[in-house]
């Protein structure tokens, strides 16, 4: 019966879904795969169905914070606000079978005020889960214009900028894979550029590669003197052969004092 209700819900058949509930379907029922109907409704964005289930007594915390976490991942976070303020969702709970929290999704989608509300209500900041770096690491997915404020908020509330995943990769490595700007933000927040992961990858390697892409683009637009780019490339070549001195060489590149490469890189 629960499976039938889920099929009606995913088809958008509101009348049929309500009829199934009227016929006696438990709003806290489990469907095939040991998944609660309310969790499915929140996962697929069927807010109307989730609201109907909650109105009939569904427990918003029946699967840890899964329902709230799915709501925090919606482009419109209004349902997440209602879950917290009207339906009794508990932000302090973790996701079922995971150490992640609703805050991870709020940070990912750039819902700054929702993230602040979750933190105020005791939602923990995740450190790592299943090989990824949630929490502060999720700001790489934030929309432009939001990630800096989100990053500052998480740092103010105790996010660990030195967190590493199962492979030893750091937040700095994670950030360098996504953004020209977020890696320097992590460095300023205290990320260790000398970290080496289990595969021998050096944190600065990723950062430098992204900087080189930036320099190459700028050179193609004739915005940087060739000599400045050549100087920076020489520093990088030295760094590749001397990892122990990599931090010193990187700082030298950042503070080279050139009007082109060094200054542009330093601005981040």
UniProtKB/TrEMBL annotation:
Keywords: ANK repeat, Repeat. ANK repeats lie at residues 98-130. SMART domains: ANK. It holds the Pfam family Ank_2. This is Uncharacterized protein.
């Amino acid at each position: 019966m629960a499976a039938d209700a889920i099929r009606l819900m995913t088809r958008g058949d509101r009348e049929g879904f309500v009829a199934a509930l009227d016929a006696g379907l438990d709003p806290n029922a489990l469907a095939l795969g040991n998944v609660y109907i309310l969790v499915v409704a929140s996962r697929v964005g069927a807010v109307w169905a989730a609201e109907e289930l909650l109105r009939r007594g569904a427990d918003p915390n029946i699967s840890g914070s899964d329902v709230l976490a799915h709501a925090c991942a919606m482009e419109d976070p209004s349902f997440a606000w209602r879950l917290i303020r009207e339906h009794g969702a508990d932000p302090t709970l973790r996701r079922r079978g995971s150490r992640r929290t609703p805050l991870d999704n709020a940070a990912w989608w750039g819902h700054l005020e929702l993230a602040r509300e979750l933190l105020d209500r005791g939602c923990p900041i995740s450190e790592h889960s299943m090989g990824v770096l949630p929490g502060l690491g999720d700001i790489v997915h934030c929309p432009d214009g939001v990630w800096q404020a989100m990053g500052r908020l998480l740092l103010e509330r105790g996010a660990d900028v030195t967190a590493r995943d199962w492979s030893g990769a750091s937040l700095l490595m994670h950030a360098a894979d996504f953004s020209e700007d977020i890696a320097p933000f992590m460095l300023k927040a205290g990320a260790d550029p000398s970290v080496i992961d289990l595969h021998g990858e050096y944190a600065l390697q990723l950062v430098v590669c992204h900087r080189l892409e930036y320099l190459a683009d700028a050179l193609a637009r004739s915005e940087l003197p060739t000599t400045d780019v050549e100087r920076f490339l020489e520093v990088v070549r030295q760094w590749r052969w001397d990892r122990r001195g990599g931090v010193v060489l990187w700082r030298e590149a950042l503070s080279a004092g050139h009007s082109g490469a060094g200054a542009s890189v330093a601005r981040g």
